[in-house]
Amino acid sequence: MAIDIQPGDEVITTPFTFIATAEVIALLKAKPVFVDINEQTCNIDAGKIAEKITSKTKAIIPVHLYGQMADMDEIMALAGKNNLIVIEDAAQAIGSEYKNKRSCSIGDFGTISFFPAKNLGAYGDAGMVITNNEGNANKLKVLRNHGQAERYKHSCIGMNGRLDTIQAAILLVKLKYLDKWIESRIKLAKRYTEYLKDYVKTPYVKDHNKHVFNQYSIRTDRRDDLFAFLKDNGIPTAVHYPRPLHLQECFKYLGYKQGDVPVSEKISGEICSLPMFPEMTEEQQDMVINTIIKFFKQ
Ligand SMILES: Cc1ncc(COP(=O)(O)O)c(C=O)c1O
Hints:
Layout: E1 10-13, H1 20-27, E2 31-34, E3 57-61, H2 72-82, E4 85-89, E5 97-98, E6 101-102, E7 109-113, E8 127-130, H3 134-144, E9 148-150, E10 153-154, H4 165-175, H5 178-196, E11 209-210, E12 216-219, H6 223-232, H7 262-268, E13 271-274, H8 282-297
Parallel strand pairs: 1-2, 1-3, 3-4, 4-7
Antiparallel strand pairs: 5-6, 5-11, 7-8, 9-10, 12-13
Helix pairs in contact: 5-8
This protein binds pyridoxal-5'-phosphate.
């Protein structure tokens, strides 16, 4: 809304993400254009974006999936060349880094989710938009408060997008611990990788990236059986995401069919997120690791 996306405009993003990324495009009656992902990182394949840019393209929304940033140099270069806005979906990636730059500091906008399961979670729903452009920031402030800059003077159609004060207070306290929690997630991730790398595909982290592991997601072609085995052994897992967005019923009107975005489709059948939270003890983690090894040795 802040960049005045119009009906019929096109916005490029990945289908291997939570619905919200593409939902906002569709809510503005613009068209989500899905670009496949890189098989290693599961982030948008920057090399496949150019072929999807048309005269209607207005923006690109890379998603920093699981807590690892997308290939921002390539994305920003394409955006600069084609005069496109870049909105970093960093819902899962607060604190992550790309070549020593933090998420949300590279694109025109960055968005963060404070949903309780995120690395910095509120005690309910909350979120934040980040921009380093004062004009954009002012527009966002008006939009989030029903389009009013002054009370009862509505210059545009906005919404109630305010952050509850109680959530802000909680987040300000929790923010102090964020770096420590991220370090703990990274340590746990290293340990998972060390013990599981011979059994499953462990997350691939690019050298220049600091991955903050909101999710630790492994891949195996025996995913559904592993998922059931872990569940039977009292270990909760989740699949992020079992059906890519181009195959969701709500996006049927876009006309995609099975096979159109093959890497996303393949990985949606293999991916599985393991328990991951900063307070996890080695003993708890060993239980997960040993159960997975038992599954593959049986
Ligand atoms: C990649 C991604 N984008 C957007 C969102 C939406 O965040 P929220 O539910 O806080 O609006 C989420 C939340 O799960 C997400 O994972």
